[in-house]
């Protein structure tokens, strides 16, 4: 017992001297996290890594001083494990931090850790994006090697969104990295298709396409400014719907109702031909409407069920946004333009 007491006294004296030298030279106090052994909130490796990062931040390079600081932070069963190691190995000297880590690490391996890890992986759930879920799984796994790829994929699918689980079941990857690559590639494409379907459903529902009329900025007819830059991408995106690039973002606008028409009109965009630069009142293109058969037809109320003459609006022929003439199966006849922009 006397030998143990002398050994502990020598350790404490060395540590105290090292800390006094450190504080005297830098004027700062190094505060390292404590480690209590198996059952601690962080692993021995994580604790060691944090301490080494702090040593680097304080520009401490002296290995003996660093080892002394590490010993000082051991508490409870961790301190007992260090004392036991020194008693059983009197010839072993912990000269540097690497030896300190290699000699003591085996004392702090939790035999129940694999079971605890598996339980945590089973409780993991995808509540956000796919990348967040992958990151959370990687943080739990750390550098743990005692699990096969097949079991890791199995546990990974526990909290994964069903659509990604279906992809993995279909592809049946052999390695975990292959599984990540598969769902990253196919998952992105799937999300894009779902987003496109959502847009199409929103277009069919006129209420979903409503725009807050209070947020519309009314511009002067003569001296307007392009606060919003409209570019027509597709004039037949869907029934009564134009697809625009508004300040770089693709936005479909439904013009069958009052809200969409008012929005375009206030931003100097024609809701008849879809072109920016003029309003509907100044447009000389044929008014058209989408019929129930999936094609476009001329407005019968305006033209008395008569097809317009061939020379209608012929002076404006040639615009790249021409509507199609479904009467004669001619893609560009009788199409016309809005005013020059």
From TrEMBL:
The alphabetized UniProt keywords are:
Metal-binding, Zinc, Zinc-finger
Q: What InterPro entries does the database record attribute to this sequence?
A: Znf_CCHC
At the top level, the lineage of the source is Eukaryota
Renumbered to this chain, region (Disordered) spans: 294-320
Q: Name one GO molecular function term.
A: zinc ion binding
Biased composition regions of type Low complexity, renumbered to the chain: 310-320
Ranges where the CCHC-type domain occurs: 270-283
Q: Where is the composition biased (Polar residues)?
A: 297-306
Give the organism, scientific name. Answer: Smittium culicis
Q: Does the keyword Metal-binding apply?
A: yes
What SMART domains is this protein classified in?
A: ZnF_C2HC
Provide the protein name: CCHC-type domain-containing protein
